[in-house]
Every structure is written in structure tokens, then in C-alpha cells.
Amino acid sequence: MRTRFPLFFVFVLAACLTASGQISLPAIISNNMVLQQHTEVPLWGKARRSSALKVATSWDHASYSTRVDADGSWRVMIKTPVAGGPYSITLDDGKPLVLSNVLIGEVWICSGQSNMEMPVKGFKNTPVLHSNELLLEADNPRLRLFRLERAQSRQPEDDCKATPWEAANALSVKEFSAVGYQFAKALQEKLKVPVGIIMSTWGGTMIEAWMNKNSLAPFPEIKILPPADTSKMNKNEPTVLFNAMIHPLAGYTIKGMIWYQGEQNRVDPQLYDRLMAAMVQEWRKIWNCGDWPFYYVQIAPYAYHDTLGPAAPLREAQQKAQRQIPHSGMVVSMDAGEEGSIHPSDKTSISNRLLYWALANTYDWKGLAYASPLYNSMKVVKDAVNISFDNAPNGLTAFGKPLAAFEIAGEDRKFFPANARITGAGITVRSDSVKAPVAVRYAYNDWPPGDLYNTEGLPAAPFRTDNF
Asked: What distance, in Å, lies between the first and last C-alpha atoms of the chain?
């Protein structure tokens, strides 16, 4: 029978081992991990103070050495081969430690709030589409999962509490992010290499909590409490999730990140695009492994009944952010929401669309559509407005359904439901109630029907032509 030790005992044991000279490692570096292929990756930890530490890798029989600092800290860069494994890594400061069953492949992080956190098993009374089928097909020793526990801190932490690296199976997958898991599963199947996916999520959280003090410096209106402050922390306090759930991962070489967050920031959408751009810029800086891709999900439609604010301005800010963040891509979810659930069950469509962005932009797959139609321009012709779109080279479709989400307004700024039809150049919109139109909106509310697509099946992003 497998014995489980309380976390407190594990931490005390680790501290004692370090004091006596045995090598200790952060949670992210362990047996069963996946390291990013064909690059240099860091390993770090604690060891016997001021000792010489050697690292040997089984894939190339290379040896590396470094001097442990006076405080016991060490860090070494090792070269990884093309994807493969399992391999082993031996660390030796006089007392060898062997890491086994290590794979070399592609490493991604999934992060955000509850729609990224939502596990394959679903939330209480809130299902995930095809959950049991996903669990039935979960066994995959070449797909590895690492899941952080919720935590918060007012100062950057060097380690985290987590479910250690483990192979995908029904037990490990059921607790893992449905979006993150399905993205990683499909990526592994398409690339035919090992894939590691790291989950760092907490529902109901604002982006400011996931940012550090450097990225928040341009926003003096956001108050950061000092580490010595004794007031009670909450998950939405600026920096506390970064400190506890991102900083311990920083430096672990990754290929990219997928992100699904924003509902909680409806309270102040005017800042959101700049906040997200600042967050990604700082994360890439501290990771120090290049401008890795950042693919994210525009929040899904839902009939909100709270006082935070409307969803449309936040979605607009998310779209603006794509122009500010190099190597980024936005997934549109306007057809994958549920009027009565803020946690829609269809996570497969979302993970597939994230996959399209990754395959086409990160892995250079040709011929695959990945970007949703985006509003380009409008032209008034008598009592109608012609709308053109980007990312629809083969045209648009509603798959036989009526286009019900368009509105049109005149100089009085009063919007009326519009009749919309697909043309060779885009969409033509008009209404008998508006004889001299000046503005058009599409799906610009909390719960709009997402009924417009490009012919590849990617839904159009909501938009407005006005700045009323």
C-alpha cells in the first residue's frame, strides 16, 4: 500500500536533508518530468554548501559541473537532445541523486481563472462535455502532467506545493484542466513527441494577482502591499498569485503558454489590454528563454447577473491586447458559451482552437486555419453598411442559420436589430428603423448568439464600429 506523508512532514524532511548535505530540488524538477527538447535548460536546487556538484545526462553521457554557493544554492544549464526518452539525470555533490523516467519533448503552461481551472471531471453539478470518454482514452505515458495547488504570498516563493509530474491516466487527468489537458493531448498526438503540461490556475481571480511588482509599476493606481503587511491576504490582491504560483516555475524552460482569464476584470476593462501586455512582457523576461508564444481565450458569452460590469468592453480589450503582445493569438469563444453557466461544458472547441494557433504559428504547420474573422472596415452605401473582415479568405458562413447578432444605429446612437446577409465582400447590414446608418455592432453584449464564421468554422470576434 502506498504511504502518504503530511506535507508538513515532507517539508521538514527536505529541510533536514539539505542541512545534512543531500541535494534537494524544487517540485517542478523531479522524476517523470518533461524537459524542452533541443535547447539548453536550467536545473537548480540546494546542495552541500560550497561543494562541487556534478550533473550527468544519460541521453548523451555528458557531464556538467558547478560550484554550490555558500547558502547552498546551485544552478546549471544542460543541453537537451531532440525528443525522446525515458532518460535519467544524475546529480552528485558527494551523495548522488538520480532523476528517472525523464522525457524530452514539448513543455507548455496553462494558466488563468476558472474556465482554465475547470477539471476534466467538471465542477460540482457543472459537467465537461465528453468527460468520461476523455478519461477512457487518458492512458498515455508520453503525456505528463504537473498541477500546482492554490497558494498566495506577498513575496516571491522559490518553490510550490503541487501534484508531482505524473503520466496521463484516468486518475491524473480527471483533476487536470480540461482545456489544458485536451490541448496537450492533441499536441502530443499530432507532433508524436512527449509533451509536458503545467497547470497553474485559480478561479475567480483578477489579472493583477498574476502579475509581479515590476509589471505593475506603470499602473500607480494599483496598490501593492509590502511583504510585512499583516492584513489578511485574498486571491485577488495584486502579485500574490504570481509570487506563489508563477515565480516558482520561472526559468523552467517552456515552449509556450495558454491563458484563459478575464471575467473578473470586467470591473475595469479599460486597463486590461495594457495589463495583459505588461504581464506577458515581464513573464518572458524572467523566464529568459525567448519570446515564447502566448495564446489566450476571449471570455465566453454568459448572461451575467452581477455588478462587475458588461462583458463586451472586456472582450474588446482582449482583442486589443493581441496587437500589443508579439507572438500572441486570441481564440474566439462566442459560439461555445452557455446562457445559464459561466463555466460552459464545451472545452473541446476551445482547446482545439488553441491547438490550431500552436500548430500553425509555433510548429509551422501549413494549410491550417487558426485565426478567427476580425472586423476590418465599414462603408455606408445609402441605407446600408458594408462590413469587411480579415481572416476570411474563403468567405463567411452562418451554416444555414440567420445572422441574429447584428445591430445598427444612426446619428441618434440608438441601436436596432439589423438584417444582415453575407456577400462576396463580407456582410451587408440594414434596418428599416435606421435610414442613415453610422455604426454597426456585432455580438456586443453579455450573451449574444455567435452565428458568424469563416468557412473553416472559426467564429467571428465581436466588434463595434463606433466609439460611443
From this structure: 66
- Report yes or no: 271 and 264 within 8 Å, Cβ to Cβ: no
d(CA 351, CA 175) in angstroms, rounded, equals 16
Q: 273-293 burial by CB neighbour count: b if 16+ within 10 A, else e? A: bebbbbbbbbbbebbebeebb
Element (H, E) at 321: helix 312-324
Cell of 160: 510550490
Mean pLDDT computed over 330-344? 97
Neighbours of 455 (CB within 10 A): 14
What burial class does residue 76 get, using C-beta atoms within 10 Å of its C-beta: 0-12 exposed, 13-18 middle, 19+ buried? middle
Task: Name the nearest CA neighbour of 443 among 455, 432, 427.
Answer: 427
286-336 pLDDT tens trace:
999 999 999 999 999 999 989 999 999 999 999 999 999 999 999 999 999
For residue 320, the Cα-to-chain-centroid distance in whole angstroms is: 17
**Cα distance between residue 466 and residue 243, in whole Å:** 40
Q: Measure the CA–CA gap between 305 and 295, rounded to whole angstroms.
A: 28
Q: What are the angstrom distances between the C-alpha of 227 and each of 110, 143, 160, 233?
A: 27, 38, 18, 11
Please provide the size of the chain in residues: 468
pTM above 0.85, yes or no: yes
Tell me: pLDDT of 4 over 90. no
- 60: helix, strand or coil: coil
- Among residues 28, 34, 4, 293, which one has the least CA distance to residue 140? 34
From residue 95, how far is each of 92, 103, 187, 352, 362 by CA, in Å? 6, 24, 38, 46, 41
How many Å apart are CA 57 and CA 40, to the nearest integer?
13
11 Cβ contact list (under 8 Å, min separation 6):
none
User: pLDDT for 11-64, tens place per residue?
Assistant: 433 444 444 458 999 999 999 999 999 999 999 999 999 999 999 999 999 999
- Report which secondary-structure segment, H or E, holds 268: none
Sequence-distant (≥ 6) Cβ neighbours of residue 131 within 8 angstroms: 120, 121, 122, 174, 178
SS3 14: helix
Pairwise CA distance, residues 241 & 153, whole Å: 7
Could you tell me if 93 and 52 are in contact, meaning their C-beta atoms sit under 8 angstroms apart? Answer: yes
Which residue type is seen at 387?
I
**The cell 509599476 sits on which residue?**
217
Instruction: Please list, in sequence order, all residues whose beta carbon lies within 8 angstroms of the beta carbon of residue 376, skipping any fewer than 6 positions away.
Output: 387, 388, 389, 390, 426
- What are the cell numbers at 74? 546551485
